[in-house]
Amino acid sequence: MVVPEHDADFPLTSTIAARFVHLGETGSTNTALVELAGDGAPDGTVLVADRQTAGRGRLGREWVAPPGSSLAASILVRPALRSGRVLPDAAWGWFPLLGGVALRRILAALLPERDILLKWPNDVQIRGLKVSGMLAELVVRDGAPDAVVLGMGLNLTIGREHLPTPTSTSLALEGLAGTAAELADLVLSRVVAEVRALVSDLVAADGDPAVADLVGVVSAECDTLGRRVRVELPSGDTLLGTASALDDQGRLVVRDEETGESVAVAAADVTHLRLA
Fold it and tell me: What pLDDT, on the 0 to 100 scale, is given for residue 164?
C-alpha cells in the first residue's frame, strides 16, 4: 500500500500524486522530472518548484515569471496497457494536446464567466490573453518512448505591471480569489486528476488514438480551428492560412492562403489573426 505524501504548501496535490517532489529552486521542473523518470519515478509523479532559473517554453524559448506569483510544475505520465505493454508510438504525440485540454477544462470550471480558450497545441488563454503554457518532453528508454513529462507554467497572482508580455494575464486579474499558494494547489490537483482521467480513457481504448477519438476530444476544446493564423515554424519560415483541422497525429492542418495547399504542422508558434 502506498501512503500518500503530505506537503503543507500543496495539501491537495501531494495526497493524490503517486509521488510528490517540492523543490525550492531548480533550473527547470521538466529537466528535473525527466531525470527522475530515468531513475524509475512512477506514473503520476508531480514535481513543483518555488523558483525556476532556466524555465523553457516551446521552440527553446526562455520562460520567466516573478517568484511567488506563478506555478511551475511538471507531471510524469507513464501509462501502461492492461497487457503490461507501453502505449503504441502513435499515442505519444497526443499528450501535449491532452495536457492543454486538461488545463483548459479546469480553468473553465473555476472561471465559468470567463472565455477560456485553448490555442493549439496547449496555450490556455482568457479573453485572448495567455495565462498558461505547457511543454511536453518525451522520455526515451532503450530507443523507445517510455514516458512523457508535461510541464506547465501558470500565472497565478502576477500583477498587471509584472506580466511577461502585454498579451498575458493571471488568474487573480481575471477574478479568481486566493493566495498564490492556494491557487497553485487547487489548479494543480485538479489538472493532475483530469490528466489521469484522459489517460485512462486512452488506455481503455488499448492506446489507440482513433478508438479513443482523440481528434474529436481535442477538436472540441481547440479554439484555433477555423481561425486565420500565422504559424512560425522551427525552420524560421512563416505560414499564413486557415487552421482547418487536426490530423490523426494531432498535427494542425493549415490551408496556406498563398498556395491553397494544406500543410500539417507538428511544432510551431501559432498566432490567431483577424479575418482578412
Answer: 87
